[in-house]
Amino acid sequence: MILKDFDLVNLCPHDVKIIADGQEVVIPATGEIARCNTRYIRTGEVNGIPLYRMLYAGTYGLPEQKGNTFYITSQWVWKNNKSRDDILVPAEKIKDGKYIEGVTGLAIPVDAGKDW
Asked: Does residue 23 sit within a domain?
């Protein structure tokens, strides 16, 4: 699949650096960030430490779909918007020790339970 002439809008809080085929491409952060709303519901304790259920309750900062535009977001944002076909996520991380240097590309997420 080769797609051309698409706008890539990075809604991550950081630049996305792609290292592939001997080249580096940086997709700068826009300053607009797509995030998940979360709620924490205390459910008990484990070894005296509070234990919570974490509920993802929708997202904010994700624009409406627009033709010829892909939005780069976190996997959590995609998981809350699985019906959207305009979301890409950073692919495999390239690490230098414990630090992330970049990613191998962008990924089209699929739900393995349904689409794999």
From this structure: yes
